Amino acid sequence: MDGFFKFSERGTNLQTEVVAGLTTFMTMAYIIFVNPAILGTQGTGLPVSGVFFATCLAAAAASIAMGVVANFPLALASGLGLNAIVAFTLILGLGLSWQEAMAVVVVEGILVTILVVTNLREAVLNAIPLGLKFAIAVGIGLFIAFIGLKNGGLVVQNPDTYLALGDLTQGPVLLAAAGLALTLVLVARGFRGGLLIGILLTGAIGMISGVVPPPDGIVDFRFDTSTIGGGVLAVPQVLQLSLVPVIFALFMTDFFDTMGTMISVGQEAKLLDEEGRPPNAKRILLVDSLAAIGGGAAGASSVTCYIESGSGVAEGGRTGFSSVIVGLLFLLALPFAPLISVFGGSVPIPGPEGGEIFVSPVTAPALVVVGFLMMTAVRFIPWEEMDEAIPAFLTILTLPLTFNISYGIGFGFISYVLIKLARGKPGEVHPLLYGAAALFVLAFVWPALQSALS
Questions:
Q1: How do residues 212-236 score in pLDDT, each as one tens digit?
Q2: Residue 395's pLDDT is what?
Q3: 137 closest CA partner among 440, 435, 399
Q4: 96 vs 251, more confident
Q5: pLDDT beyond 90 at 359
Q6: Would you say 374 and 362 are in contact if contact means Cβ atoms under 8 Å apart?
């Protein structure tokens, strides 16, 4: 096992990788409940129980494949944002059946796989300048920290100031704040497994205090497999010109989200080479693209690399064995859904404008700490060079504020090309970067073009 996963070569061991896998799983276990909640929204026709089974199965297969095939500490599961496109744009907006919506995901995954096999996706990765690669890592760090604050209810929407401090009189928000303080102390003191210990202790405090409800039971072996295969059978029905814009939107998000996640996790794990490239990049991208196909085929929406993998890397994970552990835990989660809900589940609190918002106070603190660890790459950006620093700044700024990794990368690419041209340095821009920037421009202006044409 040491030789296959290269434990010694990468300065890790079996115990560390197991802890890393446990930590990553705990920070992304929320998808087991969030994905069914989104895809099973009233009107989609997707059964919540079926999506739950598909989510765990697809995440397990993809994460294990990433560990075994690519030996990289990236875990995969159904992508947030991508599942919203499937539910609210494809099904509820365009009126597609859930089978047709999943077929769109399958087609998009096939397109990305073709680009991987032809080496174009890896070529685009290599064309990104090093400064922008570090900026992507920093931007994602801020993004995941922001998600942590939001998930913990520590930051909420405000109609006047856009964002505001959460209601600290609410038990779940106080629990998130206490969990953050506890996790920060553990990490600052150098405790091995500090993030995982923080999650477990926060969950225990939540149950003891009554803030987090105890599990309804321990196991449930009633599995719903009704969504498996539906997306594959409907592929012929979605091969139409009217769906090209939606397939393109999914394609752009999937294409660049993974690249950004791969770079930022690789940087945190110190696995990037001098050009900012991770080992086995083509294998990583191939597993990810095939996972998208698998997610659509299973009825779980597109499966993609998770930035929460950084929490496992922060615990010392350096090999694909941590991803294998995550995959096995997704399989083990199938009958233990009631118990998993304690840590990965959400609890309601009053919203700032009435109604309710749902927070995940147990895992939210870990995400904030992971964001800090990833943001440390900011020191590698050449801030004294304006044509490198400005695109890096725009990437870091827009990635968390648009709540979209691809949009942040798009702002970085477009501004990098524009500034290089403005300074008379067109030769310093890789030809593929021109093409990628042009595609992002098209993606940004496409809604306006559609409106004008209609």
A1: 888 777 888 888 999 999 999 999 9
A2: 93
A3: 399
A4: 96
A5: no
A6: no
- 76-78/155-158 β-pairing: unpaired
**What gap in Å lies between CA 394 and CA 280, rounded to an integer?**
29
- Number of other residues whose CB lies within 10 A of the CB of residue 229: 14
pLDDT at 351 over 90: no
Q: Read off the DSSP letter of residue 358.
A: E
The distance in angstroms from the start CA to the end CA of the chain is: 59
Say which residue, 137 or 434, is predicted with more confidence. 434
Output 52 or 193, whichever has higher pLDDT: 52
Residue 228: closest CA among 377, 108, 56, 434: 56
DSSP letters for 25-93: HHHHTTHHHHHHHHHT-TTS---HHHHHHHHHHHHHHHHHHIIIII--S--EEEPTTHHHIIIIIIITT
Q: What is the DSSP string of 427-451?
A: GGS-HHHHHHHHHHHHHHHHHHHHH
| Token pair in block for residue 438 | 């042009």
**Who wins on pLDDT, 31 or 330?**
330
Segment 138-163 shows an average pLDDT of: 89
User: Between helices 14-28 and 364-375, what is the axis angle to 10°?
Assistant: 120
Q: Are 206 and 183 in contact (CB under 8 A)?
A: no
CA angle 62, 67, 73 (to 5 degrees): 105
Q: How does 410-449 read in b/e, with b if 16+ C-beta sit within 10 Å?
A: bbbbbbbbebbeeeeeeeebbeebbebbebbeebeeeeee
pLDDT in tens, 190-214: 876 788 788 889 989 999 999 988 8
In the predicted structure, residue 341 carries a pLDDT above the cut 70:
no
User: How far apart are alpha carbons 66 and 290 in whole angstroms?
Assistant: 10
137 closest CA partner among 375, 312, 318, 370: 375
| Angle at alpha carbon of residue 119, lines to 312 and 428, rounded to 5° | 90
Amino acid at 381: I
Q: Over 70: is that where the pLDDT of 66 sits?
A: yes
Furthest-apart CA atoms within the chain: distance in Å: 66
- 8 A C-beta contact, residue 280 and residue 135: no
Sort 342 into a burial class: Cβ within 10 Å, 0-12 / 13-18 / 19+. middle
What is the Cα gyration radius of the chain? Answer: 21
Rounded Cα distance between 291 and 297, Å, is 10
Burial of 365-387, coded b for 16+ CB within 10 Å and e otherwise, reads bbbbbbbbbbbebbebbeeeeeb
Three-class secondary structure of residue 295 per DSSP = helix
How much is the pTM?
0.76
Question: Shortest CA distance to 123 belongs to which of 293, 281, 268, 252?
Answer: 281
